[in-house]
Write a structure and sequence with these properties.
8 helices, mainly alpha, 2 domains, elongated
Length: 186
């Protein structure tokens, strides 16, 4: 090989390397945009918790992969009506029994999640699972659960309990909808 051919070969190798690096960064940016769009505010929460974008995105991708294994199902009309009635009763009892109403709201939401096909592991796993399909209201679910825990320690005011009911209601309404969540692939 003469000097000219070596120079061309080095230039081709360098060009391929530059294209590969640019492709890698474009792919990462696209991945980040898709995950941010799919998970909304949950994306930022996980990035803050994990402290690193790459690690957080890995967590979110694992959640989405786990969620793919679930067989979520629509509720039969009679079941939906039963849940709606149970919620109305729970909510109507708030004035006379705020603490009991929050406890029942948590139970009704948990049962509704199970009826839809979400696995019922510990709370953090349930919240992570819900975040894939309901990334906006999952923070409400976490807030409601936190208030319920504070209530069990005697540290929640009636106003806190009212907020918990509102938070539980936002997730309840989404879970009760007739249609299954539209999946946005990451």
């Amino acid at each position: 090989m003469d000097q000219h051919q070596v120079t061309i070969l080095i230039a081709v190798i360098a060009a391929v390397a530059v294209i590969a690096v640019v492709g890698f960064f474009v792919s990462r940016k696209r991945r980040s945009q898709q995950l941010r769009q799919r998970f909304g505010p949950e994306y930022d929460r996980v990035v803050k918790k994990e402290g690193e974008v790459g690690r957080a995105e890995g967590v979110l991708e694992l959640r989405a992969k786990r969620r793919e294994e679930f067989e979520l199902r629509p509720l039969p009309e009679a079941t939906r009506a039963d849940f709606a009635d149970r919620w109305r009763i729970t909510q109507s009892q708030f004035v006379d029994d705020p603490k009991g109403s929050v406890t029942r709201a948590d139970q009704v939401v948990s049962e509704l999640m199970a009826s839809r096909g979400y696995p019922m592991g510990d709370f953090e796993l349930r919240a992570a699972d819900i975040s894939v399909d309901h990334p906006v209201v999952v923070e409400n679910y976490r807030a409601a659960h936190d208030i319920a825990l504070r209530h069990s320690r005697g540290q929640a005011s009636t106003e806190d309990l009212r907020k918990a009911m509102v938070y539980y209601r936002s997730l309840f309404d989404e879970l009760l909808q007739d249609s299954l969540p539209k999946r946005k692939e990451a």
